[in-house]
Amino acid sequence: MDGATKTPSTIPQAELDRITDDLIAELKTVYDPEIPVDIYELGLIYKVDIDDDYHVDIEMTLTAPGCPVAGEMPGWVEEAALRVKGVKSAKVNLVFDPPWSPARMSDEAKLELNML
């Protein structure tokens, strides 16, 4: 939709809020195997969109492009999204721009990794 105005969702706001909260909770169950912090707190999730058909598009990155689980992690994230009640489909797009940096981590993640 280049240049087009995004139309409001037909999904009621309360339902969107619940799905969003549930998606965050599920994303927090996915961990980078090399770091004891979930991908949400690490700041690896860049964008989550829910369309009117209850399809979820997730844009995420990895801590490094050569991450050993680069081939598997998108599937783990899609599975997590599909566990949310109401979500009918999910697609993860890996992006590396902007590159991830520790500055994207939450304070909770920094505390867990003794970086505060």
The CATH topology corresponds to: GMP Synthetase, Chain A, domain 3
**Share in helix:** 25-40%
Beginning-to-end CA distance, first to last residue:
41 Å
Query: What is the CATH C level class, in words?
Result: Alpha Beta
How confident overall, as mean pLDDT? 91
The arrangement of helices and strands along the chain is HHEEHEH
CATH superfamily: Fe-S cluster assembly (FSCA)
Strand order of the largest sheet: 1-2-3
Low-pLDDT segments: none
Beta-strand content: 15-25%
Describe the structure.
The protein has 116 residues and is of the alpha+beta class. It has one domain: Fe-S cluster assembly (FSCA) (GMP Synthetase, Chain A, domain 3). Helix content is 30%, strand content 16%. It contains four helices and three strands, in the order ααββαβα. It has helices at 13-27, 39-42, 73-82, 107-112, and strands spanning 45-50, 55-60, 89-94. The protein has a three-stranded mixed sheet. A hairpin with a 4-residue loop joins strand 1 (45-50) and strand 2. The longest helix is centred in the first third of the chain and has 15 residues, at 13-27. The chain is globular. The model has no long low-confidence stretch (mean pLDDT 91).
Quick description:
With 116 residues, the protein is α+β, with helices and mostly antiparallel strands. 30% of the residues lie in helices and 16% in strands.
